Amino acid sequence: MAASQPKNRRALVWAVVGAAIIVGAIIAIIASGLFADSTAPAPTQSPSTTADPSIHPSAEPAGATVDPSVTDNGWIPEPITTDRDTYTRAALAAASTFDTQLSSRNDWLSYLDTWFTPDTRYVSQADRDDDMAASQLELRQAVVLPESEWDSLANEDGRVAASVPGRIDYTDVPDDESSDMSIATADVLLTFTRSDGVGNDASYDETVRVSVQVLCGDESVPTPNSDQQAGDCKVVRYFSGTLEH
Hints:
Elements: H1 5-32, E1 44-46, H2 84-94, E2 98-99, H3 105-113, H4 125-143, H5 147-154, E3 159-163, E4 168-172, E5 181-195, E6 201-215, E7 234-239
Antiparallel strand pairs: 1-6, 2-3, 3-5, 4-5, 5-6, 6-7
């Protein structure tokens, strides 16, 4: 891909993809009412002795991870793997798994930044860096729980544990000559848990459709000071809505 013409061509491609994302996002918001307290289903009471899903997230990957200790913060460890399916399930879960009592929202987002690698369709390093920064900004502004909702959940000692129990649909990435990137779409199960302040927890489930672009190829950039290597899977971009193909 040339440095200028492909960049224009990619802008056109993502304009089309973006339109699909917006439509999907509207449908998803209407259908699920994700993160809207007023439309959340009635909680079901559970004993206060119920295991804490934030300490041992249900989507915690087996095998080697970049930093297994992040479970202490209520986060999903990033797998060290070249297996696309294993990595994708963890990546989709990580973008919705947190504990407001174990970490701040900013710390959680900074941690998710370490999962990212540049889009290899850009030739220059500057373009790659700019695109990755834009993808990380999109994660903050359009994908994860908004700050106001985080604060509301934190007032009730809240947490969310996410997992991908079912099928993942994969599609090719436009203009990816390496064929190392994929767009993955799946139903993500979110379990919200809130406390009434006197030791009783209330939990309820939500299912949302989410997409993520993953690179499993030689040009992936490992997390610094980790056992990851070039070629291990990494996140390129999270999408704010569902991509239908």
